[in-house]
Amino acid sequence: MKIYNTMSRKKEQFKPMNDQRVKLFVCGPTVYDDAHIGHGRTYISFDMIKRYLEYKGYSVFYLQNVTDIDDKIINRSAEVDADPEVLARKFEKRYQEDMEALGVNGVNLFARATDHVPEIISQIETLIEKGFAYETSTGVYFDEAKFENFGKLSRRNLEDLNVHRVNIDQTKKNPGDFALWKKRDEEPLWDSPWGTGRPGWHIEDTAITEEYFGPQYDIHGGGLDLIFPHHEAEIAQMEAASGKSPMVRYWMHTGFLNVSGEKMSKSLGNFITIRDLLEDHDPQVFRFFVLSTHYRSPIDFSEKTLDQAAKSLKRIQKTVEKLNELLDSSAGNDDDYFSGLLKDYRIKFLESMDNDFNTPEALAHIFNFVKELNKAFEDKTPSEKVLKDIISFFNEFGEIMGFDLAVKSNDGDISGELLDIIKDVRQKLREKKEWALSDDIRGRLNDLGIDVED
RNA sequence: GCCAAGAUGACCGAGAGGCGAGGUGCAUGGCUGCAAACCAUGAUACUUGGGUUCAAAUCCCAAUCUUGGCCCCA
Fold it and tell me: Which pLDDT tens digit goes with each residue over A111-157?
């Protein structure tokens, strides 16, 4: 399979360092506020990526950091008069809940920055020893001039990086030098060889990945906005500290999510949290919406596009529903035909997924398969065995994408049983050709969001 | 200013030199008491201007526009 590598700007054959084991790290959230749908886009994408890698037989360890110490957290705590740690824990918990709601559950280990301060300090010490970092009165900084290839991921050079900076710390050698350790004397703070203070932003990720993965690993992911400066800084830190390159074999970046063509921001008033979204939208539909665009492309969120996604997903679900219904009665002998279809579309689907996780194209194949099946069922039926093969393909598809394609059962639910009674009554009315009354019932059920199809 | 990504039909969205994916919407027909679902058919595309090529949505050069980054950000 091929993966687009931001470093080379090309699709490359995917080959993990250790045969079937894949070490995947994705930059996690800064927990100072609720996650928004842009986070949702990124984490759904990487969730799908992990699911597909596992489907392909790789054993994936998915590591994610949680930034729980940072200026934004401190500022927010001051605004709301809360303890920074309490605030961070609260939003970390809400983040986990949001991800669970979206069906994003592939992360094997969450690593908090504050749980890795010793590792951070030790990495900074190494950088100082090796001459890549220096201490000033305000902190410890990475000396970008000492690192030869600084900017190789974003394709920038040092001159670009050293202009147009505001509020430059005067103690730094170069404006682009970034903080590894910030000297502070007010809480929250930790002891260090350089006095009290707290870690800079970039260092936590490399300290964490070095701890769990070592200095080199397979995939590092995140949003496009992290390429510069965050990922550049990570490369500089880790490669300088270890002397090994590359730190990461494949850099994967997700495109932005815009809202009605504009960047989502609080000042524009178009800021949508995952919680807002899920108040009146099905998480499945949002997943489908996300995966109907390639993970690297920009995606435009609107009620209209979400609605289109809902209808598209339903088309697939209808067919799966029909397959399950047929399961009880199927005894046909058109197995060659159906097996052939299944084989063809399965291959096409996998080819698309192997091509840098091209989910929109993969979905197009699924839709074609759906159409072929619907057409075939007009005059052909497979045996139960082949039908089960088809259903299990849809199950695999659902597993990879994280879609729940199963028919929703009303068993054990009073309202479901009541609904069955209503439907039953209506059916009897229709048998007596009481059209007006039966249509009225159908209309009123539709108003409640319940589809009735005859 | 510098850097990056992008511009495909009414809307969403793949493709990356040679049969104009797919979904949603729309139109017509079939099925149906009607509607829905499903099937069939159809209309509407590759930002502009040059160039390379037997052949360009796809490559090259220019231009225009959009979004983003350069303090923080998935």
Answer: 999 999 999 999 999 999 999 999 998 899 998 888 887 878 877 76
Q: Which amino acid is at A164?
A: H
CA-closest candidate to residue A29, choices A193, A217, A357, A274:
A274
pLDDT at A404: 85
Nucleotides in B strand less than 7 A from protein CB:
1-6, 11-15, 21-25, 32-40, 66-74
- SS3 (DSSP) at A357: coil
CA of A349 to C1' of B25 (A): 26
**CA A392/CA A49 separation, integer angstroms:** 20
Q: Convert A189-200 to b/e letters by CB count within 10 Å (16 or more is b).
A: ebebebeebbbb
Look up residue A351 and give its two tokens. Answer: 């080819």
Protein-to-nucleotide distance from the CA of A430 to the C1' of B32, whole angstroms: 13
Whether the ipTM is more than 0.85: the answer is yes
Q: Which helix (H) or strand (E) holds A277?
A: helix A274-280
Q: For chain A, how many helices (H) and strands (E)?
A: 15, 14
Question: Quick one: which residue's CA is nearest to B12's C1'?
Answer: A305
Q: Looking at the domain covering A277-401, what would its CATH class be? A: mainly alpha
Query: What is the CATH number that goes with domain A2-254?
Result: 3.40.50.620
Per-residue flag: A311 CB under 7 A of strand B: yes
Distance CA A48, CA A70 (A): 29
> What end-to-end distance do the CA atoms of chain A give, in Å?
44
- Say what the alpha-carbon torsion angle A91, A92, A98, A103 is, to the nearest 10 degrees: 180
Q: pLDDT for A82-100, tens place per residue?
A: 999 999 999 999 999 999 9
A171 within 8 A of A211, measured Cβ to Cβ: no
Decide: residue A147, CB within 10 A, 0-12 exposed, 13-18 middle, 19+ buried: buried
Q: How many CB atoms lie within 10 A of CB A443?
A: 10
